[in-house]
């Protein structure tokens, strides 16, 4: 029973003490005046009466009512019902703020003068003050409170003849039952009657209509997210203008949370003065008036629900975890069925008559029933995870969170995890975990209805029926007597508040009220307490747990076969059949990824322990330990599947005898798992074992179990569970005698204590390493010593989990360095003991004893371990496979011999787009070798099923880009701590862990040596320079070979005497470093190839140190003439040195030797092409305008349009002042009119004048032809592409008045315009304004083309003066910087070689990371700019590329332009020349970008050259017939430019190479059989042995300009980045690969008869080209074999090839079977011809038809030949079908005379130059060839004469005959010209042959 009301309070408006406009509440009277003993008067009521503040009001408002909730310090809720009405304010009250308001009120009450009571509604200034009647109660009967306060107000307003004191006294003395479903009628003595119904059970919340209202206001989704937010402890704030609504919403939300209780701040109505409470860090549910919405919006982590607007706002920083699926969707759908039953019927054609919807009250219960059902599904089986730790004197219960999550299959679920860690659930366990207590609806539901709910899930109607049943019960609980409720309460009349009140609310007589209260209290003391005894029962546990969603455990389904394998393997181990067990072990280790197999292993091993077979021999022990380790390595720290728990008793049981008296237990070998250092795991294990023992304590002896089985599951079917036992004991407890009770308590306490001792030793077993001086374990778990245990205990707050994860490592275990392992373990165990003993009620004496014991236990264990460790070292080591030695190159020396390592998988195979089949070659076991050139791993796969395959992975030391330490659990199941991950820029990754036998010192030595080799202090330390030279890397670099000093002296003299040098004098060799490049070097490992072209050398005599300067000058000149650039200039007709000396004026350009001493520009070559008219002395001045003095020089000239391509560095900024001037000046040119810019202008003018077409400045060349040929939107030729540059300045361009369509815009095709570094802001609209202030010139849109376009960086071109005659024009573009290239490359490396297995299968993650790298976007931009320049050059304008310093992106663009424009550079020789000229001579900084030395280490690897090769590869893909070299050639250069094997790609410029003596080596020195020093020489040598660098599809079209597509969608990832061959390592060091002849014999270890030649080829292991060589290699191989058989000396394949070509190629004839085959033919403009072969698999294997001819006359072929040869790159070579439709060099209708006695017939003839045939068809569209004449057999073509039956109306001259070796064919054309054309075509074919 309880009082209906505890206090009645009258609160009125009072002035604010500080005189502010707002008042404050004052308590006028309270009854009773003394506090109740059991319930003190709550503070702060005056704030809650008027939550928005006490304010006067200009009009009389109607009375209001709401219920506020106050929570006291004991978490008891007090319901404050507030009825507020307004009374007129007396004038004195307004004016005198100092007078005591209470006195005035008293006067009024005693009938004194009554202010304005008799006046009319009052003068306009009349104000009204609020007054509130408050009822404070601990019961929540809002309607009763409303009626009671309403009655008091009615009596006052209506002036009823009833004493208010009596009514208040009766109200305070009314006693009603709390629960039990009784009905009580009460009267307050004013002729009123109210019926109060109590709920049936107290535990179910009362919600009335609040839940239904909440759903109506917010909707399903919003309420669900609020529900999840409240459960996962987020802050929830409700806003509404109505206080009653706020109360209802908060009550509704709490009702949904049942059976959990909300235990944080709960304030349904928060007063305005307390708004700062919203900033509290703890969770809350609070309601605030919508007027304060602005304050709510400032809160960052509060979820705001606006009840009036129906919205829920979740801040960005807050993540509300959703319910686990499928519960989320099921709950959503059932809620919509309850709230909107019409929804199901809305689409029916014949809807049933409308069903009556439930009343609001009923709907409320239905909604609650849905959530009650949801909780029953979520928490189903929770009682099976309760641990009874103590039964007497009070139950102590713990919840095994991990087991619950594991068995429900929800370990990963964020929502349930947070709920279980929350305070609400902690309360739930302590309240509902008790085994003997009254039960309610939830207990019934979770115990008995689970099966039904599971069955109903798929039937919505059945679910709805269940919900309605539950709703009935909830409704009945709230309204046990629905029909009887007869209320009779007087109410005030309509609009009574507007009438003048007779007087203010009177002051009540305290004495009278107190007297009524005292009398009632006295009466109550006499009466017996009417308390119903609560009916307690045993709480049913319900069925065992099942997973919420049955998930198959991915790849490892728990098939019986797997479990069978595990069982067999274990029985083999224990029967001693070790060989059998060894065979099964890999399969077992794989199976153990599955949970069922791990459980099975634990059970099987347990059986063997029970049969006393725990002492094992060494091999058995090894197997058991490996399997246990494998089980444990997948356990999380929580051990949710109980695997570690099941193995814990086993690891202390299995052992082996090392020597008499020394036994090693399994625990010493399975310590390296995170689960052992997790306090929660140990607590759960401890409580589980305690429960087992406590249960055994109370069971009858007959039922008692052997207590050794502590690790087993909680219960067997036939035994009572611990909860049942506990329930029985709690029932009997009150009946026991005091002594018996004491005895039981003592027994339980000692049980817990003995378990604590047991666990202290168990923990010491698993935490102390075998060698206690090594703190490896503790280093891994840095906080083991002082880890604040984040446990599943209910005492710790929900924050504990996060604290544990973020503990400070330093404080965690600061003495790890001093190896205080025992101390750390003691602290860990003590903390555990403290926690569990305090929670389990162990006495403090016992606890002290434990603390004394723990260090002794640990110390004893350490002593035993010392003996074990000593003995275990004496065991014979396990046999490991012998190390495989790698093959080395000549001159390569081993620095560190094999260190035993495991090579781990790095995700590469998956990363390249899905697994490619074949068994797992990695992880592999082997050794890593460090040589002067490479890092090499060789070994065998650890998986024995893969057989004896050898795994090789290596990369050049110089290519190393990143080296980091890693810690990994290896698949060999021993924990090897020291790992190393080496990443190289050749796309290899060595992820390896060192074997135990490799000490940390060896590993450290390996790292140091690697670092020393990777970053030599001087460039002379690189492999290419040390190779074959006398000095060893050990000696100081000064002592180089004798030649070195001579070169240094020579170059020093040269430099000293140069007229003007640019930086300081270089006494010793240094790179030219202007101030901005102080930090030299760039990416760490990488770009280092070898040396520069060695094909130009001097006579030895010219380089002796004794030479005087003049001869040396001459010498330099003559040697320069031999350089690559000079040869190329002569080829291009850009002048010879002689012409430049004699100044032949006829040539526009000359070769200037001005830089022969490298005095003007160190990074340029010695000879440069400049305009004829410019004097050498002017060049010095011009060079100052450009960065690094790289002034514009010509590097290529178009043979057709005679336009020239120039390159230079960017323009110098002119300092800060100049920059400002440039920005503010009206035209970018005027501010820069100083001398140097005039020089620059003159120079550009000279360049323009040197072009023949632009010698006059009138610029007659118009754009119309250009645009129609190349720029139209519909281009007939597929080769001309629309190239457009899009720009941010499009708006500017659109305002121009200019002809449309002349010039498109170069558009970035990659991303949809989101890149700021768009290539080229646009050619239109960036021309500078005219100097005279005329409107700006519309750039490219003007009809006259500029003679010269300057392509430069936007920022740099500000200072260039515009040409008044508009002969040159600036094209500002935005390009990426080298640091962006570096960053992009790093990401590309990670994408292609991830370093860890892919998280998600398939290629999605690979493609995402590839896109993130933006590598292809950079390729796209380079190609785009290059195509733009090609177009300009092709149209006759010259182009100057002037970007950055002129040595990175400029070089890329210039090289690409030449490659696209000039077919010569697409040959092997031409490409070499291009690289030597543009990259080597023009000073690309290979050493700097490749970080070749120690100095460059910090700047990292920037693959500018590799990016260029990638661009060439993209073009190669689109035009495979245009390149003489194969894609392998590009990969070869890409690999070796970073490998340092050759000297070609060392150093930053020719100047540095001369200085070091690399450029001109004596011929005699190089001709020995020494290793090649130049990559070109190596390519040449290799080409004589194998055709690997040749492209057999090479069939170029004359003078073809390539215009590749550059959109990202057209680009492909280069397979250089993704492919690898594990059989032999990278294939670019040809000598190391098992040479192409007979590859299978070497690689196949004696597999089958040698003649069978069949073998399995695995992707990612074998190199397919080697395993299955192309037809040409195959033929050459066959040739070699025959030569050996015949005993003839082998000859070079090239000579054999030429001989075959010379013989009149009859053997390549197409045979009669018609197997299609063909040859693509070619001719090259220089001395070498190369031949293309097309191979096609026919039904009889691959046939090869070599028909070797060359096509000199493609110019004279018909116009169709261009399109015919290349319809589009994507369908390239699909033309070799049997319908030879596409190879049509010339075609048309001819009449042909049939064979003997056959008539003339008109046929469609096709001349095919490629196949060398004249084919004929019945008609034009016919696909079946009727026959062909082989042109190889044709002897002559002669004019013919008409014969019998010839067409009549044809001229005689239209007849001609073709004579072959077999017969004469007679032909007749339709007219004479076409006959002539046919004869010419056939003749040209024959002459080509």
Task: Please sum up the structure shown.
α20 runs antiparallel to α21. The chain contains 62 helices and 44 strands.
Map the helices and strands.
Layout: E1 2-3, E2 7-14, E3 24-31, H1 45-49, E4 64-71, E5 77-88, H2 91-95, H3 101-109, E6 128-137, H4 142-158, H5 164-173, E7 175-176, E8 183-186, E9 194-197, H6 210-218, H7 220-231, E10 235-240, H8 243-257, E11 265-267, E12 284-289, H9 293-297, E13 302-306, E14 311-313, H10 327-339, H11 342-345, H12 360-378, E15 386-390, E16 396-399, H13 401-408, H14 414-421, H15 423-432, E17 436-437, H16 441-448, H17 450-456, H18 460-478, H19 510-526, E18 537-538, H20 560-575, H21 578-591, H22 595-610, E19 615-616, H23 618-633, H24 643-651, E20 655-659, E21 662-665, H25 679-698, H26 722-732, H27 738-767, H28 776-780, H29 800-805, H30 809-812, H31 821-839, H32 844-872, E22 894-903, H33 908-911, E23 924-931, E24 934-941, E25 951-956, E26 960-969, E27 975-984, E28 989-994, H34 1000-1014, H35 1023-1026, H36 1043-1057, H37 1109-1122, H38 1124-1132, H39 1137-1142, E29 1149-1152, E30 1168-1171, H40 1176-1183, E31 1193-1197, E32 1204-1208, H41 1215-1224, H42 1235-1249, H43 1264-1271, H44 1290-1294, E33 1348-1353, E34 1368-1373, H45 1378-1392, H46 1404-1413, ...
Parallel strand pairs: 10-12, 10-13, 11-12, 19-20, 32-35, 33-34, 33-35
Antiparallel strand pairs: 1-7, 2-3, 2-6, 4-5, 5-6, 8-9, 13-14, 15-16, 17-18, 20-21, 22-23, 22-28, 23-24, 24-25, 26-27, 27-28, 29-30, 31-32, 36-37, 38-39, 38-44, 39-40, 40-41, 42-43, 43-44
Helix pairs in contact: 4-5, 5-19, 6-8, 6-12, 10-12, 12-18, 20-21, 20-22, 21-23, 22-24, 25-26, 25-27, 27-31, 27-32, 31-32, 40-42, 45-46, 47-48, 47-51, 48-49, 48-51, 51-52
């Amino acid at each position: 029973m309880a009082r209906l009301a505890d206090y009645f309070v009258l609160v009125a408006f009072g002035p604010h003490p500080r005189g502010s406009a707002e008042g404050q509440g004052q308590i006028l009277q309270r009854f009773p005046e003394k506090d109740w003993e059991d319930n003190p008067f709550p503070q702060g009521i005056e704030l809650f009466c008027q939550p928005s503040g006490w304010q006067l009001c200009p009009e009389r408002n109607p009375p209001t009512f709401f219920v506020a909730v106050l929570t006291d310090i004991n978490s008891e809720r007090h319901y404050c019902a507030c009825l507020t009405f307004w009374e007129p304010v007396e004038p004195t009250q307004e004016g005198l703020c100092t007078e005591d308001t209470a006195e005035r009120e008293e006067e009024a009450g005693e009938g004194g003068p009554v202010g304005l009571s008799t006046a009319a509604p009052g003068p306009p200034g009349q104000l009204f003050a609020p007054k509130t009647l408050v009822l404070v109660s601990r019961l929540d009967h809002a309607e009763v409170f409303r009626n009671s306060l309403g009655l008091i107000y009615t009596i006052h307003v209506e002036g009823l003849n009833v004493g208010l004191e009596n009514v208040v006294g009766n109200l305070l003395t009314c006693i009603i039952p709390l629960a039990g479903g009784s009905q009580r009628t009460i009267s307050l003595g004013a002729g009123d009657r109210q019926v109060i119904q109590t709920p049936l059970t107290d535990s179910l919340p009362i919600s009335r209509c609040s839940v239904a209202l909440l759903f109506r206001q917010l909707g399903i989704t919003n309420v669900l997210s609020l529900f999840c937010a409240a459960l996962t402890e987020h802050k929830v704030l409700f806003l509404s203008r109505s206080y009653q609504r706020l109360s209802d919403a908060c009550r509704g939300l709490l009702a949904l949370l049942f059976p959990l209780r909300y235990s944080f701040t709960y304030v349904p109505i928060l007063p305005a003065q307390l708004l700062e409470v919203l900033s509290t860090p703890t969770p809350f549910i609070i309601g605030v008036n919508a007027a304060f919405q602005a304050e709510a919006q400032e809160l960052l982590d509060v979820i705001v629900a606006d009840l009036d607007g129906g919205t829920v706002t979740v801040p960005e920083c807050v993540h509300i975890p959703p319910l686990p699926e499928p519960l989320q969707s099921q709950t959503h759908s059932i809620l919509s069925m309850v709230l909107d039953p019409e929804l199901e019927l809305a689409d029916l054609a014949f809807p049933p008559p409308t069903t009556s919807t439930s009343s609001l009250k009923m709907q409320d219960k239905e909604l609650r029933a849905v959530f009650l059902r949801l909780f029953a599904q979520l928490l189903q089986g929770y009682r099976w995870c309760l641990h009874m730790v103590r039964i007497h004197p009070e139950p102590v219960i713990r919840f095994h969170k991990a087991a619950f999550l594991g068995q429900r299959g929800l370990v990963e679920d964020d929502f349930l995890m947070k709920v279980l860690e929350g305070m609400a659930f902690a309360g739930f366990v302590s309240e509902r975990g008790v085994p003997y207590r009254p039960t309610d609806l939830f207990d019934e539901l979770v115990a008995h209805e689970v099966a039904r709910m599971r069955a109903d899930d798929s039937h919505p109607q059945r679910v709805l029926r269940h919900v309605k049943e539950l709703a009935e019960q909830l409704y009945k609980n709230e309204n046990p007597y629905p029909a009887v409720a007869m209320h009779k309460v007087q109410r005030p009349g309509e609009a009574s508040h507007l009438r003048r009140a007779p007087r203010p609310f009177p002051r009540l007589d305290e004495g009278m009220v107190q007297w009524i209260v005292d009398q009632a209290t006295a009466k109550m003391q006499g009466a017996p307490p009417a308390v119903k005894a609560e009916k307690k029962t045993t709480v049913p546990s319900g069925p065992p747990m099942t997973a919420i969603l049955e998930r198959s455990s991915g790849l490892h389904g728990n098939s019986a076969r797997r479990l069978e394998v595990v069982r067999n393997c274990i029985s083999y181990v224990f029967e001693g059949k070790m060989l059998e067990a060894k065979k099964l072990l890999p399969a077992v280790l794989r199976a153990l990824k599955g949970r069922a197999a791990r459980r099975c292993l634990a059970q099987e091993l347990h059986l063997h322990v029970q049969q006393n077979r725990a002492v094992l021999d060494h091999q058995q022990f090894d197997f058991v330990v490996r399997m246990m380790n494998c089980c444990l390595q997948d356990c999380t720290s929580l051990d949710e599947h109980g695997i570690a728990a099941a193995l814990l008793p086993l690891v202390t049981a299995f052992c082996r005898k090392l020597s008499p008296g020394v036994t090693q237990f399994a625990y010493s070998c399975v310590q390296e798992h995170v689960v052992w250092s997790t306090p929660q795991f140990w607590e759960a294990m401890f409580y589980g074992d305690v429960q087992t023992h406590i249960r055994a304590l109370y069971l009858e002896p007959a039922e008692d179990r052997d207590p050794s089985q502590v690790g087993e599951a909680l219960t067997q079917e036939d035994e009572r569970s611990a909860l049942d036992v506990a329930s029985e004991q709690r029932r009997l407890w009150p009946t026991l005698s005091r002594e018996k009770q004491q005895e039981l308590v003592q027994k339980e306490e000692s049980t817990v204590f003995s378990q604590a001792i047991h666990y202290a030793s168990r923990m010491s077993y698993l935490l102390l390493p075998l060698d206690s001086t090594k703190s490896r374990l503790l280093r891994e778990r840095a906080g083991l010593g002082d880890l604040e245990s984040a446990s599943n205990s209910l005492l710790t707050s929900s924050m504990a989990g996060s604290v544990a994860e973020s503990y400070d490592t330093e404080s965690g275990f600061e003495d790890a360095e001093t190896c205080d392992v025992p101390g750390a373990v003691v602290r860990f165990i003590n903390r555990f003991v403290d926690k569990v003993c305090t929670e389990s009620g162990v006495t403090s004496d016992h606890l002290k004893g434990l603390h004394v014991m723990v260090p002794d236990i640990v110390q004893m264990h350490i002593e035993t371990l010392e003996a074990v460790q000593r003995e275990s070292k004496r065991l014979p080591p396990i046999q490991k496979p012998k190390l495989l030695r790698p093959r080395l190159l000549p001159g390569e020396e081993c620095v560190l011999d094999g260190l035993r390592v495991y090579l781990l998988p790095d995700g590469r195979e998956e990363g390249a787009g899905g697994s490619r089949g074949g068994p797992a070659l990695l992880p592999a076991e082997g050794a890593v070798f460090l040589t002067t050139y490479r890092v090499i791993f060789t070994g065998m796969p650890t998986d024995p099923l893969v057989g004896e395959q050898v795994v090789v992975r290596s990369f050049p030391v110089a290519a190393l880009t990143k080296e980091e330490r890693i810690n990994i659990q290896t698949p060999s199941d021993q924990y090897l701590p020291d790992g190393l991950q080496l990443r190289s820029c050749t796309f290899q990754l060595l992820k390896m862990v060192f074997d135990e036998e490799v000490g940390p010192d060896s590993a450290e030595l390996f790292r140091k040596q690697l670092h020393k080799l990777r970053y030599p202090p001087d460039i002379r330390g690189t492999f290419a320079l040390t190779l074959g030279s006398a000095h060893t890397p050990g000696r100081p670099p000064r002592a180089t070979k004798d030649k070195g000093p001579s070169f240094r002296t020579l170059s020093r003299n040269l430099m000293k005497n140069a007229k003007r040098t640019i930086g300081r004098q270089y006494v010793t060799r240094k790179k030219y470093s202007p101030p901005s490049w102080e930090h030299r070097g760039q990416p760490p490992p990488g770009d280092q190839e070898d040396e520069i072209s060695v094909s130009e050398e001097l006579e030895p005599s010219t380089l002796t140190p004794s030479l005087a300067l003049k001869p040396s000058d001459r010498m330099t000149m003559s040697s320069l003439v031999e350089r690559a650039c000079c040869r190329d200039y002569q080829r291009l007709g850009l002048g010879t040195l002689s012409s430049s000396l004699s100044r032949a004026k006829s040539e526009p350009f000359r070769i200037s030797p001005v830089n022969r001493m490298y005095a003007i520009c160190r990074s340029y070559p010695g000879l440069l092409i400049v305009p004829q008219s410019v004097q050498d002395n002017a060049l010095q001045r011009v060079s100052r305008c450009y960065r690094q003095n790289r002034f514009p020089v010509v590097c290529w000239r178009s043979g057709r349009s005679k336009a020239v391509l120039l390159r230079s560095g960017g323009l110098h900024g002119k300092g800060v002042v100049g920059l400002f001037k440039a920005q503010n000046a009206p035209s970018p040119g005027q501010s820069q009119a100083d001398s140097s810019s005039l020089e620059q202008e003159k120079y550009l003018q000279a360049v323009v004048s040197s072009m023949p077409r632009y010698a006059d400045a009138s610029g007659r060349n118009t754009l119309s032809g250009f645009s129609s040929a190349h720029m139209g939107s519909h281009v007939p030729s597929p080769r001309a592409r629309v190239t457009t540059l899009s720009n941010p300045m499009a708006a500017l361009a659109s305002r121009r008045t200019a002809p449309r369509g002349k010039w498109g815009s170069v558009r970035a095709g990659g991303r949809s315009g989101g890149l700021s570094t768009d290539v080229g802001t646009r050619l239109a609209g960036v021309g500078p304004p005219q100097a005279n202030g005329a409107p700006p010139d519309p750039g490219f849109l003007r009809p006259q083309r500029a003679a010269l376009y300057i392509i430069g960086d936007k920022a740099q071109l500000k200072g260039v003066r515009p040409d008044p005659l508009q002969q040159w024009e600036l094209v500002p573009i935005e390009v990426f910087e080298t640091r962006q290239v570096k960053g992009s490359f790093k990401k590309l490396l990670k994408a292609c070689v991830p370093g860890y297995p892919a998280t998600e299968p398939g290629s999605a993650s690979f493609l995402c990371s590839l896109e993130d790298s933006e590598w292809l976007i950079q390729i796209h931009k380079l190609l785009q700019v290059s195509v733009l320049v090609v177009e300009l050059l092709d149209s006759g304008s010259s182009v100057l590329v002037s970007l950055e310093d002129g040595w990175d992106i400029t070089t890329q663009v210039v090289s690409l332009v030449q490659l696209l424009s000039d077919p010569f550079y697409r040959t092997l020789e031409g490409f070499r020349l291009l690289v030597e000229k543009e990259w080597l001579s023009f000073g690309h900084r290979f050493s700097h970008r490749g970080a070749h030395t120690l100095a460059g280490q910090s700047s990292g690897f920037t693959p500018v050259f590799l990016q260029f090769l990638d661009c060439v590869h993209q073009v190669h893909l689109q035009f495979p017939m245009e390149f003489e070299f194969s894609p392998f050639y590009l990969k070869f250069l890409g690999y070796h430019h970073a490998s340092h094997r050759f000297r070609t790609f060392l150093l930053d410029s020719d100047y540095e190479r001369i200085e070091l003596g690399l450029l001109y080596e004596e011929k005699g020195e190089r001709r020995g059989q020494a290793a090649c020093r130049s990559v070109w020489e190596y390519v040449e040598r290799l080409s004589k042995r194998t055709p690997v660098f040749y492209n057999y599809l090479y069939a170029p079209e004359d003078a073809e300009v390539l215009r590749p597509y550059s959109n990202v969608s057209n680009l492909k990832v280069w397979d250089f980045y993704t492919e690898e061959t594990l059989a032999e390592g990278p294939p670019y060091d040809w000598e190391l690969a098992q040479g192409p002849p007979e590859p299978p014999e070497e690689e196949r270890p004696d597999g089958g008869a040698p003649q069978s030649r069949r073998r399995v080829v695995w992707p990612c292991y074998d190199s397919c080209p080697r395993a299955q060589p192309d037809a040409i290699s195959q033929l050459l191989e066959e040739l070699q074999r025959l030569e050996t058989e015949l005993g003839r000396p082998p000859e070079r394949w090239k000579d054999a090839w030429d001989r075959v070509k010379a013989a009149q190629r009859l053997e390549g004839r197409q045979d009669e079977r018609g197997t299609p085959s063909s040859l693509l033919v070619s001719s090259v403009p220089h001395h070498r011809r190369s031949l293309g072969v097309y191979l096609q698999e026919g039904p009889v294997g691959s046939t090869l038809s070599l028909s070797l001819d060359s096509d000199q006359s493609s110019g004279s072929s018909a116009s169709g030949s261009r399109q015919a040869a290349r319809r589009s790159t994507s369908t390239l070579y699909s033309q070799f079908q049997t319908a030879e439709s596409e190879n049509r060099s010339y075609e048309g209708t001819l009449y042909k005379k049939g064979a003997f006695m056959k008539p003339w017939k008109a046929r469609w003839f096709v001349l095919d130059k490629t196949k060398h045939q004249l084919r004929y068809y019945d008609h034009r569209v016919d696909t079946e060839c009727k026959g062909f004449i082989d042109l190889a057999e044709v002897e002559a073509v002669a004019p013919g004469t008409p014969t019998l039956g010839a067409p009549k109306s044809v001229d005689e001259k239209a007849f001609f005959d073709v004579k072959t070796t077999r017969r004469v064919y007679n032909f007749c054309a339709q007219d004479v010209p076409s006959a002539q054309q046919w004869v010419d075509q056939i003749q040209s074919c024959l002459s080509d042959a």
